[in-house]
Automatic annotation (TrEMBL):
The keyword Plastid does not apply. Coiled coil: none annotated. Keywords: Sigma factor, Transcription, Transcription regulation. Residues 121-172 form the RNA polymerase sigma factor 70 region 4 type domain. One of its GO terms (biological process) is DNA-templated transcription initiation. One of its GO terms (molecular function) is sigma factor activity. This is RNA polymerase sigma-70 factor (ECF subfamily). Residues 27-91 form the RNA polymerase sigma-70 region domain. PANTHER family: RNA POLYMERASE ECF-TYPE SIGMA FACTO, RNA POLYMERASE SIGMA-70 FACTOR ECF SUBFAMILY. It holds the Pfam family Sigma70_r4_2. It comes from the Bacteria. SUPFAM superfamilies: Sigma2 domain of RNA polymerase sigma factors, Sigma3 and sigma4 domains of RNA polymerase sigma factors. Belongs to the sigma-70 factor family. ECF subfamily.
């Protein structure tokens, strides 16, 4: 059983700022699960998520001297991981934006919010969403970004962010309804 002797997070961060590989490894291990959880929401598979985590930690170690220790390190790490995942997929998302907009359904078909879905249903079905819808759903519904912030991150208009979020919710509703019908059950 491997256990550190209760070293404070602040001390680990401080030692990382000096370039200590030992403490960088400790920081990586300490926040790996948290970072992986974030990355998995934005990645299509575990291998991609692992690459996002590793790229994110490289960015963290390169920029750790810029971290303001009066603020939450976990929030800073989260921002870097989300941005790393977005950066990794941005090129693919731009391509998908062009393809998907050609197949666009009118916005009026995107109905009310998905009140009837529980968290497990959403997480199970989210991986079936197109990449752009999955990314925007994660940013808006899970990570709390607004449409203007999402537009800035993805280099799209805020209105496109709204459209893709509506489509993601509509697709999730349709997938849940289809799954319930396939199982001979009704939703609700």
């Amino acid at each position: 059983m491997h256990q550190s002797r209760g070293i404070a997070e602040e001390e680990i961060i401080s030692k990382c700022k000096t370039g200590s590989l030992k403490y960088q490894e400790m920081l990586y291990k300490h926040f790996y699960g948290y970072a992986m959880g974030i990355s998995l929401r934005y990645s299509l598979n575990r291998d991609d998520a692992l690459e996002v985590v590793n790229d994110g930690f490289i960015k963290i170690f390169n920029a750790i001297n810029q971290f303001d220790s009066s603020k939450s390190f976990k929030a800073w790490l989260r921002t870097i991981m989300v941005n790393t995942a977005i950066d990794r997929r941005r090129k693919d998302l731009k391509f998908q934006l062009n393809i998907e907009l050609d197949e666009a359904m009118p916005l009026s078909h995107a109905a009310k919010a998905i009140d009837d879905l529980n968290v497990q249903d959403i997480l199970k079905l989210m991986k079936e969403l197109p990449a752009i819808q999955l990314t925007i759903f994660n940013l808006y519904e899970i990570d709390g970004y607004n449409h203007d912030e999402i537009a800035g991150l993805l280099s799209i208009p805020p209105s496109s962010s709204r459209v893709y979020l509506s489509r993601a919710k509509e697709r999730l509703r349709n997938m849940l309804k289809a799954e319930a019908q396939n199982n001979g059950r009704t939703t609700g």
